[in-house]
Automatic annotation (TrEMBL):
Residue span(s) of domain KIB1-4 beta-propeller: 74-336
Pfam families: Beta-prop_KIB1-4
Domain of life: Eukaryota
UniProt protein name: KIB1-4 beta-propeller domain-containing protein
Provenance organism: Brassica napus
Length: 363
């Protein structure tokens, strides 16, 4: 099996740069689906029904193949979701919160979910560990795409909060969350799940180490070292810009064949964030051991980055996607070509919150 370990750095407004640098990491899952991934752009109220406390909304998506918006009309939002807000997404399932503690999962924002009867899975109330908080969610990861399947006993939902708390539970089984206090340096690390390893991962700042937890919800993590070499040949001034001005984010992608690592460098011009550079490293076996080696060719693969669990799609499985490219939303919104080392398409960043790439599906 191989991995793409992947990083993104942002050149922030000067005030942000002087204040701090944010380092984040992400692990990718892969998909061989024959349909299109979509970016969730939120919803608009169409009609409310006071009698049953439901609402009818139009849900808006971005189609990366046609590079245009797509609207799924007349979706029913049950009472449980009317006053809630989405706080995360994984495998096309959204986590929503109503108030401070009440949480549920739903597929209402999935483009292929039923219009009139979306699935809703209540989750235990959230509780904060001492000196931690559950008000701000950093990201969400899941070990399965079928949390509503009663036969899937290994499905675990995990929430990484801003700070040092990681909370895990099994939907429809656990009556409370298992809360884990992570190391202080992992405050803004992105939670990731490896299907191969059956473990949740949090990368350390700099990307040289990963901390992991198993599905048995054991609180003690394992430490995994990551070694890089063959860095790209860049001018000293460029390295200085990336190092001193940009904030960097690392991501890790695993599929059944290989492991890869990438670093991306977004920056801002006139307070508008742009991508400066992405770097991808492929895991290679050498006589000296395993190393992450720089590459500008990930073949037929497209990587999708947002605040949801990142994933990868083969371009040939979805005609119209651009191979060897990264589709990103967050610090900018566009398509980055690894072969050309530049953003080849840019789009206006939507003003709505909850911008999550959803795995391939059929509308």
């Amino acid at each position: 099996m191989s991995r793409f370990f992947f990083g993104l750095a942002n050149l922030s407004p000067v005030s942000d740069v002087l204040a701090h640098k944010r380092r984040r990491f992400r692990l990718f899952s892969s998909s061989l689906a024959t349909t299109t991934p979509y970016l969730s752009l939120g919803d608009t109220l169409k009609k409310d029904s006071p009698d049953d406390c439901t609402e009818t909304r139009d849900v808006v998506f971005f189609d990366p193949v046609k590079e245009e918006r797509l609207t799924v009309t007349d979706k029913t939002f049950p009472q449980e979701l009317v006053h809630s807000r989405q706080i995360g997404s994984s495998h096309g399932w959204g986590l929503s919160r109503d108030g401070e503690r009440s949480v549920c999962m739903s597929n209402v924002y999935h483009p292929s979910s039923p219009k009139s009867n979306p699935e809703i899975i209540p989750l235990p109330s959230l509780t904060a560990l001492p000196d931690n908080q559950t008000g701000v969610v950093w990201n969400v990861a899941m070990s399965s795409s079928s949390p509503s399947d009663d036969d899937d006993e290994d499905c675990v939902v995990a929430i990484k909060f801003l700070g040092n708390q990681l909370s895990l539970c099994r939907p429809n089984r656990d009556l409370r969350w298992t809360n884990v206090e992570t190391l202080g340096m992992l405050e803004t690390s992105n939670l990731m799940y490896s299907e191969r390893d059956q473990r949740f991962y949090l990368p350390a700042p700099g990307g040289n180490a990963l901390y992991s937890w198993d599905l048995h919800l054991n609180k003690s993590p394992e430490l995994h070292q990551v070694v890089f070499r063959d860095l790209p040949e860049l001018a000293e001034s460029e390295w200085g810009l990336l190092d001193m001005v940009c904030s960097r984010t690392e991501h890790c992608y695993l599929n059944k064949r290989e492991r890869n690592y990438a670093q991306g460098y977004p920056w801002s011009e006139k307070f508008k964030y742009m991508i400066r550079r992405f770097m991808v490293f492929r895991e290679e076996e050498t006589p000296q051991g395993r190393y992450m080696c720089y590459t500008e060719d990930i073949g037929d693969v497209c990587i999708f980055l947002s605040m949801s669990e990142a994933f990868c799609v083969q371009a040939t499985s979805c005609p119209g996607l651009r191979p060897n490219s990264i589709y990103f939303i967050g610090k900018g919104f566009g398509i980055y070509s690894l072969a050309d080392n530049k953003t080849i398409s840019s789009f206006k960043v939507p003003s709505s919150s909850g911008l999550y790439w959803l795995p391939p599906s059929c509308i």
